[in-house]
């Protein structure tokens, strides 16, 4: 969902062991027909979006998942920066020839900075995180901030737009493509608007987004991803597609503490460039002071990676409800707020699964295992 990378330097070593995960030995076996996914993301180096990229690449290497591509959208940061981070991510993992990066929408359908400023001033509250809006839009590559281990050296963004790629990938794989929607929904809204024929061909969309029965984060009522482009969210949620929502209702209950952090950052047998980046981000916080290395009582939510976990292990969702979900789009205190209806929904809404609780111990094993595997990613095919 969101986090700002704190740039530090380090020396990385390569992990040499791979342990059997507690969440199920069967998941180490290649699937004859692995799920096909598009990761639609406001990508970043190694906060939750970047972590999902690592985990998906490891699952692909073992034959359990097929990542068709990463489509980038503005959200956590502007599109150009997100693309740069995604390119370095696939190159860092050694999967740049298997997983392409596609540039999508640079601006939301329904927002401009003046309106954002005016609305937040009139209706204060929330944690103050506004993602890309908090910094100037980069006009060229010279305005970009390099990941701590540098920009990609040989990996280029795909020429095809994210919108056209989504449409083409779905048409090539009718009824088989799951979209993991872990950023603002602008790319998906545009793809389905410009290519409406793909709507019945999409297998499902799994979102990290919304705050239905809990407070928001960016504002008192709205979760960041859907707040960033509520018009897009409203349009996509109305599509007649199988949909599952992983909202703040559940992510607020899945928190990283020092013990979980240490399992990723400080296992001496599993040190990689990924675990070092993980330590850099989560160890020192936004300001270089408030993180697990400086405050052992620090905690942080885990967001986007729950979508991948749910795809691979639906049983991780221990409590779900079926609701019609909508998003407010009017200027005001509730702009971007998600609403769930158990009955008498407004016209046009689709009924979908909303996850309320997760099997945290099982998820944590899944999370730690995939983030601490050797890098570059190693194929486990026979």
TrEMBL record:
Record's signal peptide: 1-24
GO cellular component, one term: cytosol
Signal as UniProt keyword: yes
GO BP terms: purine nucleoside catabolic process
Alphabetized InterPro entries for the sequence: Inosine/uridine_hydrolase_dom, IUNH, Ribo_hydro-like
Keyword Hydrolase: yes
Gene Ontology terms for molecular function: purine nucleosidase activity
Keywords: Glycosidase, Hydrolase, Signal
Residues covered by the Inosine/uridine-preferring nucleoside hydrolase domain: 37-365
Full protein name: Nucleoside hydrolase
